[in-house]
Fold each of these.
Amino acid sequence: MSEITCIGILVADLVGRPIDRFPEKGKLMLVPEMELHAGGCAHNTGVDLKKLGEEVKVVGKVGRDGLGEFMINSLRAHGIDAGGISEDDEHHTSATMVIVDGQGERTFLHYPGANRGLREKDIEDSFLSGSQIVHIAGSFLMPGFDGEETARVLERAKNLGALTSLDTAWDDTGKWLSTIEPALSYIDIFLSNRDEAHHISGKTNLPDIARFFMDYGIKVVAIKMGEEGSFIMTEEEKVLVPPFSVVAVDGTGAGDAFCAGFLVGYLRGWDLYETGRFANACGAMCVRKMGATEGVGSLEETLAFIEEAEGKGNSR
């Protein structure tokens, strides 16, 4: 069992599905399902890691409101240390309207909220010490923390003996590399989806994308590709890992589940393919249920899912 600190965004998700059209302006349309879930990259990855058997601290910021209590209570209900979560008097808790279509594809309306207020000063050394990995979850959605402040926290984490990892989100400002570049040289494990990694690097070919990040000193780059699987590269090797074929109900949190699975495999010293296969399985299990973490299982359940799927030839 390892200890992992997840620093990043905390978001209340209002998820509706299936929604394949929108009502006319001023009109009402009934939605078959709508649920409130605790979400955000730090929450989701932290909960998934806990389900997979790791000890987890989550560090972030919420508003002093009902949704903030909801987020903190969700973490505590999963047995996660929420002592690193502070309350912001200026902003409400971040929230997202998640619109899921009949194929499980998601569209988001996002309010950044208290995630805007997270700063380096909120992250004490005690939140970092003792952790095998310090993971930044949701870069580009924390404007006060992204870039230089993220770099300083990652440097502190490395000085305290931790490995560092970072997962990106979509940069709606379009700044991409200029925002994240100060942090890149302090990252050991870089996790991103193909679109985001392309926009940061300016590269299209997967090995070229990975090489761009590795030139900053990053040890391993893992690119999430959804229904196409994942691509992982180090200085020694590169692997393309096929996906699992499942019926997608809600894709919310699949990328965070991948990150949790990847970190678990990496900490256990599994080879790149085995690590990517496990991460893909976590993402596949996630999309089978509504909500960002409900579908993710334990370590044993995930390994059983892989064994059953491979026994049926359930991969592309």
Amino acid sequence: MNYLILNGMNAEDTFIAKINEFLKKKFTDKDIEGEILNLYEFDIKPCLGCFKCWIETPGKCVIDDYGRTVAKKMIQSDYLLYVTPITYGGYSAELKKAIDRSISLLSPFFRIYHNEIHHEKRYDKYPDFIVIGTLSEQDENQEEIFAELVHRNSLNNFAEQVSSQIIYESDDDRIVQNKLEECLNIVGEKNE
């Protein structure tokens, strides 16, 4: 078992860095190895929308930068975590670039799933999905959009187990810890 945390923060964000350290400790306590990718540290260009990763180079983006590596690490993980400041109800720009570039992990063909059209799987195994968003304060509109985004992404990424939380910068350490522990309840269930 392994995990991958895609950290969508910017270099000045110490709040999310603290969350990442807590997550790392919890995975270590469960003897699960993995890594945290601070996406701002890498050159990841935006998706071109060319769909060559579906047709010409199946499963591999034609842009030769770290985005290719991120997509490979995503599909090889057992637990994929997004940690991001919530921006207009969505992910940060850094995280969004990495997510867009991972479209190569899906097949260009479609299937009907719960009366909706979704892509078919390209691979046999996809990671469980954990998403942690942060807000400076409660914002019902952003939280509603974020919850729907996480749900839709979990469907498109074939996640068997999904968990998400929103953490406010005003939350004290105990509340943050409780929210993160609740979010991590799905971790290790496959081993038990």
Amino acid sequence: MPMRQSILKVLAYFDLFDYPVTIEEILFFLDKEASLTDLNAELQLLTKEGLIFPDGAFYGLRNDPELTARRIRGNRHADDLLKIAARISRQLYRFPYVRGVGISGSLSKHFADEQADIDYFIITRRNRLWIARTLMHLFKKMNYLRNRQNWYCMNYYVDEEALEIKEKNIFTATEMITLLPASGNGGLVRFFDANDWTSHYFPHYRHRKKEAEGPVPSSFLKTVLEKLLDNRWGDRLDDLLQRWTSLRWQKKEERGDRNKKGNRMSLQNEKHFSRPNPANFQEKILSRYAQRLNELEVKWSAYESL
């Protein structure tokens, strides 16, 4: 039964995203250590009992072949976008005060539909987040002219003062264990180490890859600006940009602005981080996950009592 509950949690979470998973992925996301042999045996029993449904290399809670076909299409598209994301990550790391770049969102889980964005997680130097963010978003504006703005979705920033993520739950733990290191190994390694709490949800977190492939040389602009602004004027500029951005986003929220996917635009801005408001997506996923678990536990318990 303990193994079954762990399997249920994995399948239930990814079922929220219509995403069947492989046996290796189930093992990776289990909340306890297990062997592949034991897991395979339990999956065979659950399949025989009609509680889960295999389709080729994938397992899910629904007997729907279209989910597998959708995943395969999404994996293929992700292969193309990951090559683009790797190149852009190296560009982003060359901006002043950037200390680490990771690939996040659905792409970090090796999936991308036709409308997928490329999302980045950015780590900056302490007290220079807003200078770095402003420069990077000015660069993003230039890509609107080429209709490539969806390749530059830098939507989550933390500086070296706030590496530990405050929200500790299954959603943030999943995002953490799947975050792909892209550039800036020093900042990324410190970030992963600061969030070792994730291993409470996923023991494999401690074994995950922490470093990106190969070093990225610093740019001339990065070197010069960091030296020029390494003083009180840099402190004042960073504070000014943070206040200006907060006022701008406050107006967007008051207008009820929405992004191209129809979701409410909302950003939490503080001195040491800039991120999407958890209430807009994270809390909805957690609520749906709890509800789905309850439904499935009733179904599985009813079967066990037969």
